[in-house]
Design a protein that fits this description.
The protein is an alpha/beta fold. It folds into two domains: 142 residues, Quinone Oxidoreductase, Chain A, domain 1; 140 residues, Rossmann fold (3-Layer(aba) Sandwich). Strands 3, 4, 5, 6, 7, 14 and 15 form a seven-stranded mixed sheet that branches. A six-stranded parallel sheet has the order 10-9-8-11-12-13, with helices on both faces. Helix 2 packs across helix 3. The chain is globular. The two termini are 13 Å apart.
Length: 328
């Protein structure tokens, strides 16, 4: 394949402009592995890029899309050979390096992870950066001693991409999951993923107290702002809060009280530049601890040309679970 289709973003005074464009291999960026992209997805960060609501794209022109899965076509990297199934999350993809909304990509082999045999490229993007981030959050809870015996685990934004995978994995691991959502109509969906309790988003979005009643031993938070502050203030003695998102905001109105009086740990989750060993472990654990039937139940498949229409929906919180984007 010498010519390929891609969604190309260009910069203008009015904001980013997007057009479906035919490109050639000479248009690809530097790297030692060429990948035929089979599937990608749309994450919250992709929605921000495609709507221009945040300066996600920092190099122009650029192909958006922060992750993809497919097979290796050519490789000068010792770890990969043609035909290998691979996945890529982060490393500036869709921000400073051509991303997943294309049929081809040339990237650094050090950025790639070989897919576990149990996963197809469609499965990998049903998980996507959102699900991979959820697993990083769970690994952080475990590293700090949170077990099913420690007490409940709160998941905020539970009906979204990170939240839905977190609920499914935590429930399979035996945790009592409290799912927080602003969409009460999704209660049955969340219970189907394994949530034992459903609470409204409004319980956590108000002005936080320095310390609240102890309710959970662990937290997976995608919201930031007051939601994160309230979650911290209600975390049990020696509990852990893993923070990976800013859907409500970047601010954090809290105090040192939970940290010095209860020994609470706040673990920041970096999915973009996580080291290779942590990435490999996250994908290995997803292959073991994520129920594929539940994954299928929280996933819908759309064609690549739908990504622009889907972007405002994901920003508005109207997308349930995960969307797999098929690259024809």
């Amino acid at each position: 394949m010498e010519r390929f289709q891609a969604l190309l973003a260009t910069k203008s005074e009015q904001g980013p402009k997007f057009a479906w464009t035919e490109l050639g291999r000479d248009d690809l960026m530097d790297g030692d592995v060429v990948v035929r992209i089979r599937h990608t997805t749309i994450n919250y960060k992709d929605g921000l890029a495609l709507t221009g609501k945040a300066p996600i794209i920092r190099k122009w022109p650029l192909i958006p899309g922060i992750d993809f899965a497919g097979e290796v076509l050519e490789s000068a990297h010792p770890e990969f050979k043609p035909g290998d199934k691979v996945v890529l999350n982060g490393w500036g993809l869709g921000e400073t390096h051509h991303g997943g909304y294309a049929q081809l990509a040339r990237v650094k082999g050090d950025w790639l992870v070989k897919l576990p045999e149990t996963f197809s490229s469609a499965d990998a993007m049903a998980i996507g950066t959102a699900g991979y981030t959820a697993m990083l959050c769970i690994l952080a809870l475990e590293a700090n001693g949170v077990t099913p015996e420690s007490g409940p685990v709160l998941v905020t934004g539970a009906a979204g991409g990170v939240g839905s995978v977190a609920v499914a994995v935590l429930s399979k691991l035996g945790h009592h999951v409290i799912a927080s959502t602003g969409r009460p109509q999704e209660a049955a969906f969340l219970e189907g993923l394994g949530a034992k309790e459903i609470i409204g988003r409004e319980e956590l979005s108000g002005t936080p107290r320095p310390l609240g009643k102890e309710r959970w031993a662990g937290v997976v938070d995608v919201a930031g702002s007051n939601t994160l502050a309230n979650a911290i203030s209600q975390t049990k003695l020696h509990g852990t809060v893993s923070a990976c998102g800013l859907a409500q905001g970047m601010d954090l109105n809290t105090s040192v009280a939970p940290f010095i009086l209860r020994g609470v740990t706040l673990a920041g989750i970096d999915s973009v530049y996580a080291p290779k060993a942590k990435r490999v472990e996250a994908w290995r654990r997803l292959a073991v601890d994520l129920d594929k039937a539940k994954l299928a139940g929280l996933t819908v498949t759309k064609p690549l040309r739908d990504v622009e229409a889907l972007a405002p929906q994901i920003i508005a919180g109207q997308v349930r679970g995960r969307i797999v984007i098929e690259v024809a």
